[in-house]
Amino acid sequence: MSKPQPLPIGYIEIAGQRVTASDTVVHHAIELWQRQQAGKDIKAEQDQLKIELLDGYKDLDPSAAIVIPGVCRVTLKRGAVKRVIKDLGAVRALLGARFDDLVDSKTSHSTTAKLDAIIDDDRDELGLALRGFVATTVGDPTVAIVAA
Asked: pLDDT digits over 121-147, tens only?
């Protein structure tokens, strides 16, 4: 019976500083890396199978499904159609009074890094006043893994 290979030494890097990582952290990182690499091969195989299945769907209604009782059901989800108006003035002129009924208008505003600095400055009166009118959301943390 062969002896398990020792784990390589890993470290945690924060702001240019390195701290030795525990064996558990190193083990989990290696395991995640290996599974991701294996997953890329599986993903490529799945993508090829989907292409082949899509060929069979060409002439079928989008509501059709391939059914293998007790095993699986494969349905086709057509890509969403999204239309974007390229010339707003021309469309507005053509639609006239119907424009507001037939066109969805969306506007989004976000802060710049400069405005973020003002809002984050506890000594800036404008920043303190703005805090009540600017919502801050923080996304869920993610794990990214790349070759070293």
From this structure: 999 999 999 988 998 888 776 656 566
pLDDT at 103: 92
Q: How far apart are CA 105 and CA 100, in angstroms?
A: 8
SS3 label, residue 14? strand
- Measured between alpha carbons, how far is 104 from 84 in angstroms, rounded to an integer? 10
30, 48 Cβ separation under 8 angstroms? no
Q: SS in 3 state form for 48-110? A: HHHHHHHHHHCCCCCCCEEEECCCEEEECCCCCCCCCCCCHHHHHHHHHHHHHHHCCCCCCCC
Q: How far apart are CA 12 and CA 64, in angstroms?
A: 51
Give SS3 for 13: strand
